[in-house]
Specification:
mainly beta; Immunoglobulin-like; 7-stranded parallel β-sheet; elongated
């Protein structure tokens, strides 16, 4: 209640009288209610194939905070996810006026497998487990041998003579689900030749090796042989021993091989898959170029990928772990590249010395019975690899540049470059250099050769080098 005096005047402004009145106060109007947050939320696409990227964009009004799938985000922003499976993205905005949300579902489909990249067939020959003539006979260049599904139980599998395709018309062996299994003893598959593709084949348990790919003066050099999407399981000795040039493995898988070494008492022998030197008359010759690309070599009872005695070794984008002693071993190679490989063991696989495997190793055997590389050993490039032994230290070392085991011989490798790698959680050391190389170069953030006898940090903090 408000009390006021009212003064009355005439037209000339002369005060006439006074009155005292009481007035009732009018309260101010209430403030308007806070507005509920509003959202603008869009996706560039709502249906993609796995591996593709979308763009999410959003803006809000009347909000003080926002979340995208419960993760705090700016009130206005964007994101470029690459979902691996169908997912719903929900944007929520909160403000004084309450909460609003909007959802967008993005459907993700699998990328269809690309059609096989084979040259056209000049002739097709079909084979099934009851009729192996198409494997055991010789074929003209351009022939495609198609193996029907089933278990091929064999004593031996000798491809017909020397397989002789041509670069533009290779002989192709294509599996529709064929599995080779051994009923006899010894190496299951012997082969030699040139310009051959083997695709989708599986080798199962054998008493010795899965494959011997041979070269010698009588048969010539096995050259331009490619294994695609092949699988190798439970060999007793090595799985694949290859001699020749331009030998390629694409998307192949090795597992549970080298069974003779399950008790860990056979030393470092055998290795799972790799190359070797061969006799040319009385001369020992090196294999030429060998490639392992997008392969996996896991949980074998010997060394893993082993491109030894090759003049040009490439190991790229491979997954290797839990192979006894060494996962990737460069033994007396010429040029060698190990790039973008992943070595992340899921368990500790120990030798008879209670040691987990080295991840990557390079050494040179100097015994007189082994030939020397005609152009020297090296250079070596290790680039973009990830080695992580995990909390259980499942790797003994990340990389070891070593003298040959059991000798004091100098390691002849030179020009060792290590860049953009990640080495973590190794039991003994991340990188070990046993002896100084005869020559060494570095570029970019490559590791320089270490200071003698000290554990030193070189360049990027992820690199640690110990010199012994």
């Amino acid at each position: 209640m408000t009390r006021r005096w009212i003064i009355e005047t005439d037209d000339a402004g002369t005060i006439g009288s006074f009155r005292y009145v009481e007035l009732t106060d009018t309260p101010p109007p209430p403030p308007p209610p806070a507005e509920k947050p509003t959202i603008q939320f869009t996706a560039s696409r709502t249906s993609i194939q796995r591996g593709e990227t979308i763009t999410l964009e959003w803006s809000t009004q009347h909000a003080t905070s926002a979340t995208l799938n419960t993760v705090q985000v700016p009130l206005h922003g964007s994101s470029t996810p690459s979902p691996a499976q169908t997912v719903t993205y929900t944007l929520a905005a909160i403000g004084p006026g309450g909460e609003s949300s909007k959802a967008i579902t993005v459907t993700v489909t699998s990328v269809p497998d690309p059609p096989p990249d084979f040259p056209p067939a000049t002739k097709e020959v079909r084979v099934d487990p009851t009729n192996l003539d198409g494997i055991k006979t010789s074929h003209q260049p351009g022939t495609h041998v198609i193996l029907a599904p089933g278990n091929y139980d064999l004593k031996t599998l000798n491809f017909g003579g020397r397989i002789q395709g041509t670069p533009d018309r290779p002989i192709v062996y294509r599996s529709e689900g064929a599995v080779f299994r051994q009923t006899g003893h010894g190496t299951l598959t012997w082969m030699s030749g040139h310009d051959v593709i083997l695709s989708g084949l599986t080798w199962e348990k054998v008493t010795d090796r899965h494959i011997n790919l041979n070269s010698n003066q009588n048969q010539g050099v096995s050259r331009n042989i490619e294994f695609r999407d092949c699988k190798f399981f439970r060999s007793t000795q090595q799985s694949v021993v290859a001699q020749g040039d331009e030998i390629r493995f694409r998307r192949c898988h090795w597992e549970d091989n080298c069974q003779v070494n399950r008790d860990g008492l056979q030393g470092v022998w055998p290795y799972t898959t790799g190359t070797w030197w061969y006799w040319w008359g009385d001369e020992k010759r090196f294999s030429g170029r060998v490639e392992y690309v997008d392969c996996s070599c896991v949980d074998n009872w010997g060394e893993g990928i082993h491109p030894s005695y090759s003049m040009d070794a490439h190991v790229e984008r491979c997954v290797c772990h839990e192979n006894l002693y060494i996962d990737i071993y460069l033994n007396n190679t010429g040029k060698a590249i190990v790039r973008n490989c992943t070595i992340k063991p899921t368990k500790a696989k120990l030798t008879r010395y209670n040691e987990p495997p080295r991840a990557i190793s390079a050494s040179v055997e100097e015994y007189s019975k082994f030939p020397e590389q005609p152009n020297g050993n090296g250079p070596i490039l290790l680039e973009g690899n990830v080695v992580d032994g995990g909390s259980f230290k499942g790797c003994r070392m990340g990389f070891r540049w070593a003298k040959h085991r059991g000798t004091d011989a100098h390691n002849r490798y030179h020009d060792v470059t290590i860049r953009n790698n990640t080495f973590r959680n190794c039991k003994e050391a991340l990188v070990i250099i046993d002896k100084m190389p005869s020559a060494a170069t570095s570029s970019g953030n490559a590791i320089d050769m270490p200071i003698d006898g000290k554990l030193v940090q070189i360049g990027d903090p992820q690199y640690w080098v110990e010199s012994r």
